[in-house]
Write a sequence for this structure.
């Protein structure tokens, strides 16, 4: 079996490099940048499209329900990484799954742009969710395949990759938000479709630069078992349709349902990997070590992803967005975090590269991230007395969230590749994204507990819990070091 992050010919070649990293990183940087352009361009409008009145171009949905559904949708995107990872590891390889996932994303944005009302919403979001899930896990897997496990550049490489994510995340909401204000929601969604089409074209031209290992399944499914899995997939689809048709699952309980599904899927995934005969004793210890990172990641994203739920509504209704006589579209707040990522991702990457083996252990980075994002939420407390929150105050809070993100997100993707058993490379990355799925879903669920005028308990609960978990994560470093062995 090929190990996902084993050094490849591309890694060792003396060809062109990308800021000192393997040249193939540029192709992955590009496709992820344009995918994030389209995804965040659409998501920056999504809550407003749902709860704005029909006369304002929206669907007229209850605001609380809309925010819950935005969280549920975000969770579903990351949940679908399971499917993308399985197709990669068992059938097609990461590179092919990534390519066809990009096509699905483009078609989804076209559906949002052209199909009216709830039909367009459902068709578009389903296609984007499936496509984004397939692209996310496999893009990360391909980045991991460019480095050997002991290459000190890997964290820096993921940080550069993450910069591409945030260039797209910056530009997407700026363009779609402006188009929405000037021409309406559907023109904004159309711009997201065009962005994904550009990314797909660029990636198609650079596919040959990627390592051959990305085209080969790491744990191929025997032909004799394929019919059984077809039956399983059909049964799952029928079950989902039946759950909605019988109203067991409704829009009102969709977010909590997805949270339960993600928790169950994560437990099953961990159990399958830990019990697999293809996982040796050392790898099994490393999988056990990954569980605290999973929990810490879910807690972080439950707060961070509230940019698209609670903070989206807060920016629309409570934030002073005036710059002189001009009022900034509320969706532009989504671009503040990417601006800081672009500024600081390179600094963090350079820092990890310079420190090399002396940099803090991953558990320390995770713990500090949780403390910082918790502190950011606690800083909302003194703003309760303002009639309108100053824009600079929210910018400062989002700066702290950015530092927390850079300490956890690219590092979390890297640790997933480092701790992955040989036979479960992409699927371990899917487990990391399942933690993001759980956190994102919870961001919608938790936003429902926010009550304007009684905000302090909400912020103390959110921020205080994150700080406590962060301290616990740092305290667990010695125990995790024993399980992780030589992996830093």
């Amino acid at each position: 079996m090929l190990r996902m992050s084993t050094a490849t010919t591309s890694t060792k070649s003396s060809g062109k490099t990308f800021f000192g990293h393997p040249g193939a990183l540029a192709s992955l940087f590009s496709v992820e940048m344009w995918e994030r352009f389209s995804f965040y361009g659409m998501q920056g409008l999504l809550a407003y499209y749902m709860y704005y009145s029909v006369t304002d171009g929206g669907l007229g949905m209850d605001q609380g329900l809309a925010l819950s559904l935005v969280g549920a949708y975000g969770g579903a995107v990351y949940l679908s990484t399971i499917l993308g990872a399985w197709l990669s590891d068992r059938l097609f390889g990461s590179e092919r799954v990534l390519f066809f996932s990009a096509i699905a994303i483009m078609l989804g944005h076209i559906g949002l742009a052209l199909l009216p009302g709830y039909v367009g919403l459902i068709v578009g979001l389903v296609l984007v969710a499936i496509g984004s899930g397939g692209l996310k896990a496999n893009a990360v897997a391909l980045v991991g395949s460019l480095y050997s496990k002991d290459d000190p550049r890997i964290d820096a490489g993921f940080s550069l990759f993450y910069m591409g994510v945030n260039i797209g995340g910056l530009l997407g909401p700026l363009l779609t938000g402006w188009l929405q204000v000037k021409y309406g929601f559907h023109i904004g969604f159309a711009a997201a479709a065009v962005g994904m089409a550009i990314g797909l074209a660029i990636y198609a031209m650079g596919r040959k630069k990627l390592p051959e290992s990305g085209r080969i399944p790491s744990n191929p499914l025997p032909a004799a078992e394929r019919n059984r899995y077809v039956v399983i997939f059909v049964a799952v689809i029928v079950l989902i349709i039946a759950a909605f048709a019988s109203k067991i699952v409704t829009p009102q309980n969709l977010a909590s349902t997805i949270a339960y599904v993600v928790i169950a899927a994560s437990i099953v995934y961990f159990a399958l990997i830990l019990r697999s005969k293809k996982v040796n004793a050392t790898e099994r210890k490393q999988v056990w070590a990954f569980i605290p990172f999973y929990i810490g990641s879910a807690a972080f994203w439950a707060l961070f992803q509230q940019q698209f739920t609670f903070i989206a509504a807060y920016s629309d209704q409570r934030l002073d967005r005036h710059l002189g006589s001009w009022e900034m579209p509320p969706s532009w707040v989504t671009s503040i975090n990417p601006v800081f990522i672009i500024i600081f991702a390179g600094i963090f990457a350079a820092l990890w590269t310079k420190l090399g083996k002396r940099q803090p252990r991953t558990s320390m980075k995770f713990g500090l991230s949780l403390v910082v994002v918790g502190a950011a939420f606690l800083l909302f407390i003194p703003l309760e007395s303002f009639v309108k929150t100053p824009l600079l105050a929210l910018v400062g809070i989002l700066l702290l969230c950015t530092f927390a993100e850079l300490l956890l997100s690219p590092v979390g993707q890297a640790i997933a590749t480092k701790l992955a058993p040989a036979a479960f490379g992409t699927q371990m990355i899917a487990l990391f994204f399942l933690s993001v799925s759980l956190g994102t879903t919870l961001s919608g669920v938790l936003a429902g507990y926010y009550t304007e005028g009684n905000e302090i308990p909400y912020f103390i609960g959110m921020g205080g819990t994150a700080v406590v978990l962060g301290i616990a994560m740092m305290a667990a470093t010695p125990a995790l070091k024993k399980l992780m062995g030589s992996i830093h």
Strands lie at 17-18, 21-22, 322-323, 326-327.
